[in-house]
Write a structure and sequence with these properties.
The protein is α/β, with parallel strands linked by helices. It has helices spanning about 15-20, 45-50, 65-75, 95-105, 125-135, 140-155, 165-170, 175-185, 205-220, 240-250, 265-270; strands spanning about 1-5, 25, 30, 35, 55-60, 80-85, 115, 155-160, 190-195, 195-205, 230-235, 255-260, 275-280. Helix 5 packs antiparallel against helix 6 and helix 9 (about 205-220) crosses helix 10 (about 240-250). GO terms for molecular function: lipid binding.
Length: about 290
């Protein structure tokens, strides 16, 4: 049997994780002195409320024991496992999961574990996991699925904006110099993940221009592969996410979309407000446009 696993930064509607039996390795979320397991014993609403209250929030990569808990049963059964992780350039999560996976393969010789760097996060990893699960249903073999996933990771797109850059500055994922213009001149930043790293891509003024510019960027990047699933994730701003979904559906009649909330671990670094659009700029050899 082939099993699909993600870390908890992957975003996808909960019912799809359940429907396709996609397992999840939790990152840790720390609020003041209390530690929680992302998407296990903390809700994202608690994270946003804690940010509003000015509490000290941090995250940490998965505990090796939690990784073992998720993987060991399948490894004992001799199953093959594909794990899709947050970008290795944004977190040590990929590295620690890879390390534990190698240790488990030494112990359980009949199991193979393949750790895929999504070169992004959030709905990119979620859509990749969904594609893997759909390909398993269609009887594609492990090597064919790995080829598709590696192709997707090399052509992923994350176009997003956030209301306040202070949280992402604190996380170290955008420099103070890059963020200075956005916060001081009150322009709206549009960010993009390029080669696994977050970069400020454009700056605009006003919410209407912001949304129109985001849609224009998506239109440019998606033109070679318009028939796909597009994830729209928000940081406690469902209204803006739905506006973007409406604009995208008006332009692209064949895309399928979902709107979801960014999870607790990523939400800690993004802060309150903002949205991201997640898709791929090139069609892989096989893609199933199904939600």
């Amino acid at each position: 049997m082939l099993r699909i696993v993600v870390d908890s930064t992957a975003d996808l509607p909960r019912d799809l994780f359940d429907q396709y039996d996609i397992d999840m390795i939790p990152l840790s979320v720390h609020i003041d002195e209390t530690e929680y397991l992302d998407k296990r014993n903390i809700k994202v609403e608690e994270v946003y409320n804690s940010l509003r209250e000015g509490k000290d929030l941090k995250t940490s990569q998965p505990n090796p024991l939690e990784i073992i808990k998720v993987l060991e049963k399948s490894a004992k059964n001799g199953d093959d496992i594909i794990i899709i992780t947050l970008s290795s350039k944004l977190s040590g999560t990929h590295q620690v999961i890879n390390m534990v996976s190698n240790q488990l393969m030494d112990e359980y010789k009949d199991s193979s574990i393949h750790v895929i760097d999504s070169k992004g996060g959030s709905a990119i990893a979620g859509i990749m996991a969904l594609q893997a699960a759909l390909l398993i249903e269609k009887k594609y073999n492990k090597n064919e699925i790995l080829e598709v996933l590696n192709d997707l990771s090399n052509h992923c797109e994350h176009i997003f904006t956030i209301a306040d850059l202070k949280y992402i500055i604190k996380s170290g994922r955008v420099t103070k110099a890059e963020a200075f213009i956005g916060n001081v001149l009150r322009v709206k930043p549009i960010l993009r993940v390029i080669d696994g790293e977050i970069k400020i891509y454009k700056k605009v003024r006003g919410n209407k221009k912001l949304l129109n510019t985001i849609v224009e960027i998506v239109e440019e990047k998606i033109k070679q592969f318009p028939n796909q699933i597009v994830g729209i994730c928000h940081a406690d701003d469902e209204g803006m996410a739905c506006q973007v979904e409406k604009l995208l559906k008006e332009k692209f009649t064949n895309i399928k979309t979902f709107v979801d909330t960014i999870g607790s671990a990523l939400g800690t670094h993004i802060g309150i407000g903002g949205i991201g659009i997640f898709f791929f700029n090139k069609e892989p050899k096989v893609y199933i446009n199904q939600l």
